[in-house]
Specification:
Layout (H helix, E strand, L loop, with lengths): L2 H28 L11 H9 L5 H6 L2 H28 L2 H4 L2 H12 L3 H9 L4 H10 L6 H53 L5 H54 L11
Helix pairs in contact: 1-4, 1-10, 4-9, 4-10, 6-7, 7-8, 8-9, 8-10, 9-10
Protein backbone atom coordinates (compact mmCIF):
# COMPACT_ATOMS: atom_id res chain seq x y z
CA UNK A 1 0.00 0.00 0.00
CA UNK A 2 1.56 3.31 -1.10
CA UNK A 3 1.99 6.29 1.23
CA UNK A 4 -0.37 8.42 -0.86
CA UNK A 5 -3.10 5.80 -0.66
CA UNK A 6 -2.68 5.45 3.11
CA UNK A 7 -2.81 9.23 3.41
CA UNK A 8 -6.09 9.36 1.49
CA UNK A 9 -7.53 6.62 3.70
CA UNK A 10 -6.66 8.58 6.84
CA UNK A 11 -8.16 11.78 5.40
CA UNK A 12 -11.44 10.02 4.57
CA UNK A 13 -11.55 8.33 7.98
CA UNK A 14 -10.94 11.53 9.91
CA UNK A 15 -13.41 13.45 7.77
CA UNK A 16 -16.01 10.80 8.56
CA UNK A 17 -15.28 11.11 12.28
CA UNK A 18 -15.88 14.86 12.11
CA UNK A 19 -18.78 15.01 9.67
CA UNK A 20 -20.94 11.97 10.53
CA UNK A 21 -21.94 13.24 14.01
CA UNK A 22 -22.78 16.64 12.56
CA UNK A 23 -24.94 15.09 9.83
CA UNK A 24 -26.75 12.93 12.37
CA UNK A 25 -27.39 15.94 14.58
CA UNK A 26 -28.68 17.87 11.59
CA UNK A 27 -31.13 15.10 10.70
CA UNK A 28 -32.35 14.96 14.30
CA UNK A 29 -32.85 18.70 14.32
CA UNK A 30 -34.80 18.51 11.08
CA UNK A 31 -37.33 16.07 12.57
CA UNK A 32 -40.41 17.68 14.14
CA UNK A 33 -40.82 17.41 17.91
CA UNK A 34 -44.41 16.17 17.74
CA UNK A 35 -47.37 15.55 15.49
CA UNK A 36 -49.03 18.93 16.05
CA UNK A 37 -48.69 21.93 13.77
CA UNK A 38 -47.15 25.20 14.83
CA UNK A 39 -48.67 28.42 13.63
CA UNK A 40 -46.04 31.07 12.87
CA UNK A 41 -46.15 34.46 11.31
CA UNK A 42 -44.29 35.33 8.12
CA UNK A 43 -41.12 36.46 9.89
CA UNK A 44 -40.86 33.27 11.92
CA UNK A 45 -41.58 31.08 8.93
CA UNK A 46 -38.87 32.82 6.95
CA UNK A 47 -36.43 32.36 9.84
CA UNK A 48 -37.28 28.67 10.08
CA UNK A 49 -36.79 28.16 6.37
CA UNK A 50 -33.36 29.78 6.58
CA UNK A 51 -32.00 28.12 9.70
CA UNK A 52 -33.58 26.16 12.50
CA UNK A 53 -35.59 23.14 11.51
CA UNK A 54 -33.64 22.65 8.28
CA UNK A 55 -30.21 21.12 7.83
CA UNK A 56 -26.79 22.19 9.03
CA UNK A 57 -26.11 24.26 5.92
CA UNK A 58 -29.20 26.39 6.58
CA UNK A 59 -28.11 26.83 10.20
CA UNK A 60 -24.71 28.10 9.06
CA UNK A 61 -26.01 30.49 6.41
CA UNK A 62 -28.67 31.82 8.77
CA UNK A 63 -26.25 32.63 11.61
CA UNK A 64 -25.21 36.06 10.37
CA UNK A 65 -21.83 37.42 9.29
CA UNK A 66 -20.08 36.75 12.60
CA UNK A 67 -21.65 33.31 12.83
CA UNK A 68 -20.43 32.37 9.34
CA UNK A 69 -16.96 33.64 10.24
CA UNK A 70 -16.93 31.45 13.37
CA UNK A 71 -18.07 28.43 11.35
CA UNK A 72 -15.19 29.05 8.93
CA UNK A 73 -12.79 29.23 11.88
CA UNK A 74 -14.14 25.91 13.16
CA UNK A 75 -13.70 24.40 9.71
CA UNK A 76 -10.10 25.64 9.51
CA UNK A 77 -9.43 24.32 13.01
CA UNK A 78 -10.84 20.89 12.14
CA UNK A 79 -8.81 20.71 8.92
CA UNK A 80 -5.63 21.66 10.82
CA UNK A 81 -6.34 19.03 13.48
CA UNK A 82 -6.98 16.37 10.83
CA UNK A 83 -3.80 17.27 8.95
CA UNK A 84 -1.69 17.18 12.13
CA UNK A 85 -3.19 13.83 13.13
CA UNK A 86 -2.40 12.33 9.73
CA UNK A 87 1.14 13.73 9.84
CA UNK A 88 1.73 12.34 13.33
CA UNK A 89 0.41 8.91 12.37
CA UNK A 90 3.11 8.85 9.69
CA UNK A 91 6.04 10.59 11.41
CA UNK A 92 5.74 9.57 15.08
CA UNK A 93 7.08 6.15 14.37
CA UNK A 94 10.01 4.42 16.11
CA UNK A 95 11.47 3.35 12.76
CA UNK A 96 11.52 6.97 11.53
CA UNK A 97 12.83 8.59 14.71
CA UNK A 98 15.31 5.78 15.48
CA UNK A 99 16.48 4.50 12.05
CA UNK A 100 17.69 0.92 12.36
CA UNK A 101 20.22 1.31 9.53
CA UNK A 102 21.81 4.34 11.21
CA UNK A 103 22.04 2.58 14.57
CA UNK A 104 23.63 -0.51 13.00
CA UNK A 105 26.25 1.45 11.05
CA UNK A 106 27.14 3.72 13.97
CA UNK A 107 27.44 0.71 16.27
CA UNK A 108 29.74 -1.00 13.75
CA UNK A 109 31.92 2.10 13.50
CA UNK A 110 32.12 2.40 17.28
CA UNK A 111 33.13 -1.25 17.60
CA UNK A 112 35.96 -0.47 15.16
CA UNK A 113 36.91 2.59 17.21
CA UNK A 114 36.38 4.87 14.20
CA UNK A 115 34.59 7.95 15.56
CA UNK A 116 35.04 9.95 12.34
CA UNK A 117 33.26 7.24 10.36
CA UNK A 118 30.37 7.30 12.84
CA UNK A 119 30.25 11.11 12.67
CA UNK A 120 30.21 11.12 8.88
CA UNK A 121 27.40 8.57 8.87
CA UNK A 122 25.33 10.75 11.22
CA UNK A 123 25.92 13.80 9.02
CA UNK A 124 24.24 11.98 6.13
CA UNK A 125 20.91 11.77 8.00
CA UNK A 126 18.55 14.36 9.42
CA UNK A 127 16.57 13.80 12.58
CA UNK A 128 16.77 13.86 16.35
CA UNK A 129 18.97 10.78 16.81
CA UNK A 130 21.73 11.87 14.36
CA UNK A 131 21.75 15.36 15.92
CA UNK A 132 22.17 13.93 19.42
CA UNK A 133 24.94 11.55 18.36
CA UNK A 134 26.81 14.28 16.48
CA UNK A 135 26.79 16.43 19.62
CA UNK A 136 28.77 13.67 21.32
CA UNK A 137 31.08 12.74 18.46
CA UNK A 138 32.13 16.35 17.82
CA UNK A 139 33.32 16.68 21.41
CA UNK A 140 35.14 13.36 21.67
CA UNK A 141 38.48 15.10 22.33
CA UNK A 142 37.02 16.96 25.32
CA UNK A 143 36.51 13.90 27.47
CA UNK A 144 33.63 11.64 28.35
CA UNK A 145 32.08 14.02 30.89
CA UNK A 146 31.82 16.77 28.28
CA UNK A 147 30.40 14.25 25.81
CA UNK A 148 27.68 13.24 28.28
CA UNK A 149 26.84 16.88 28.96
CA UNK A 150 26.59 17.75 25.26
CA UNK A 151 24.55 14.64 24.48
CA UNK A 152 22.18 15.41 27.36
CA UNK A 153 21.67 18.99 26.18
CA UNK A 154 21.08 17.87 22.59
CA UNK A 155 18.63 15.19 23.75
CA UNK A 156 16.64 17.73 25.76
CA UNK A 157 16.53 20.09 22.78
CA UNK A 158 15.41 17.44 20.30
CA UNK A 159 12.80 16.08 22.72
CA UNK A 160 11.38 19.56 23.20
CA UNK A 161 11.18 20.06 19.43
CA UNK A 162 9.22 16.83 19.04
CA UNK A 163 6.86 17.66 21.90
CA UNK A 164 6.23 21.16 20.56
CA UNK A 165 4.94 19.73 17.28
CA UNK A 166 2.47 17.50 19.11
CA UNK A 167 1.32 20.45 21.23
CA UNK A 168 -0.22 22.08 18.14
CA UNK A 169 -2.82 19.30 18.06
CA UNK A 170 -3.72 20.08 21.66
CA UNK A 171 -4.05 23.74 20.71
CA UNK A 172 -6.54 22.85 17.96
CA UNK A 173 -8.53 20.80 20.45
CA UNK A 174 -8.53 23.63 22.99
CA UNK A 175 -9.55 26.34 20.51
CA UNK A 176 -12.52 24.45 19.04
CA UNK A 177 -14.85 24.53 22.09
CA UNK A 178 -13.98 28.18 22.74
CA UNK A 179 -14.97 29.05 19.17
CA UNK A 180 -18.16 27.07 19.69
CA UNK A 181 -18.92 28.91 22.92
CA UNK A 182 -18.31 32.26 21.25
CA UNK A 183 -20.73 31.28 18.50
CA UNK A 184 -23.31 30.31 21.10
CA UNK A 185 -22.95 33.65 22.89
CA UNK A 186 -23.31 35.49 19.58
CA UNK A 187 -26.38 33.42 18.73
CA UNK A 188 -27.98 34.10 22.11
CA UNK A 189 -27.43 37.83 21.64
CA UNK A 190 -29.18 37.63 18.27
CA UNK A 191 -31.99 35.53 19.79
CA UNK A 192 -32.82 38.05 22.50
CA UNK A 193 -32.45 40.95 20.07
CA UNK A 194 -35.03 39.32 17.79
CA UNK A 195 -37.22 38.61 20.81
CA UNK A 196 -37.24 42.27 21.78
CA UNK A 197 -38.34 43.28 18.27
CA UNK A 198 -41.17 40.76 17.91
CA UNK A 199 -44.70 40.62 19.29
CA UNK A 200 -45.58 38.32 22.19
CA UNK A 201 -47.24 35.01 21.46
CA UNK A 202 -46.58 31.55 20.10
CA UNK A 203 -44.64 32.95 17.15
CA UNK A 204 -42.31 34.80 19.51
CA UNK A 205 -41.63 31.65 21.54
CA UNK A 206 -41.00 29.67 18.38
CA UNK A 207 -38.54 32.25 17.09
CA UNK A 208 -36.70 32.30 20.42
CA UNK A 209 -36.41 28.50 20.47
CA UNK A 210 -35.25 28.53 16.85
CA UNK A 211 -32.53 31.12 17.49
CA UNK A 212 -31.30 29.31 20.60
CA UNK A 213 -31.10 26.03 18.67
CA UNK A 214 -29.03 27.77 16.01
CA UNK A 215 -26.75 29.19 18.70
CA UNK A 216 -26.11 25.80 20.32
CA UNK A 217 -25.01 24.28 17.02
CA UNK A 218 -21.59 25.95 17.21
CA UNK A 219 -20.96 24.49 20.67
CA UNK A 220 -21.86 21.03 19.39
CA UNK A 221 -19.57 21.47 16.38
CA UNK A 222 -16.73 22.68 18.61
CA UNK A 223 -17.04 19.60 20.81
CA UNK A 224 -17.13 17.32 17.75
CA UNK A 225 -13.76 18.76 16.73
CA UNK A 226 -12.26 19.01 20.23
CA UNK A 227 -12.95 15.51 21.55
CA UNK A 228 -11.06 13.59 18.80
CA UNK A 229 -8.28 16.21 18.73
CA UNK A 230 -7.58 16.07 22.48
CA UNK A 231 -7.85 12.27 22.50
CA UNK A 232 -5.36 11.97 19.64
CA UNK A 233 -3.05 14.49 21.33
CA UNK A 234 -2.90 12.30 24.44
CA UNK A 235 -2.26 9.22 22.31
CA UNK A 236 0.56 10.82 20.30
CA UNK A 237 2.12 12.44 23.39
CA UNK A 238 2.33 9.11 25.21
CA UNK A 239 3.60 7.36 22.10
CA UNK A 240 6.26 10.02 21.57
CA UNK A 241 7.33 9.85 25.22
CA UNK A 242 8.00 6.13 24.87
CA UNK A 243 10.00 6.71 21.67
CA UNK A 244 12.05 9.47 23.31
CA UNK A 245 12.91 7.24 26.27
CA UNK A 246 13.97 4.48 23.88
CA UNK A 247 16.05 6.96 21.85
CA UNK A 248 17.83 8.26 24.95
CA UNK A 249 18.64 4.72 26.04
CA UNK A 250 19.94 3.89 22.56
CA UNK A 251 22.10 7.03 22.56
CA UNK A 252 23.72 6.24 25.90
CA UNK A 253 24.39 2.69 24.73
CA UNK A 254 26.18 3.99 21.63
CA UNK A 255 28.30 6.68 23.28
CA UNK A 256 29.48 4.59 26.24
CA UNK A 257 32.16 3.19 23.92
CA UNK A 258 33.66 6.70 23.77
CA UNK A 259 35.26 6.22 27.18
CA UNK A 260 38.37 4.64 25.66
CA UNK A 261 37.98 5.25 21.94
CA UNK A 262 40.60 7.08 19.90
CA UNK A 263 39.84 9.42 17.02
CA UNK A 264 40.88 8.03 13.64
CA UNK A 265 41.69 10.80 11.15
CA UNK A 266 42.71 10.27 7.57
Amino acid sequence: MSKKFRLMVWIVALAAVVLIPAIVFAQDAAAPAGGGELVMDDATAQSASSGGGAGLWQVITGSGFLGIFLWLCLLADSVAAAWLAIDFFITINPKKIIPEALVAEVREAMEQGDVMKALQRCEQDQGPLPSILMAGFRNVKEGFEVIQEQVGSAADLESEKLMQRVAYLNMCGSIAPMLGLLGTVQGMIMAFANLANSEAGAAQQSMLALNIAQALWTTAAGLVVAIPAVSLYTFFKNRLSRIILSMEGMTMDLIKALRNVEVVEE
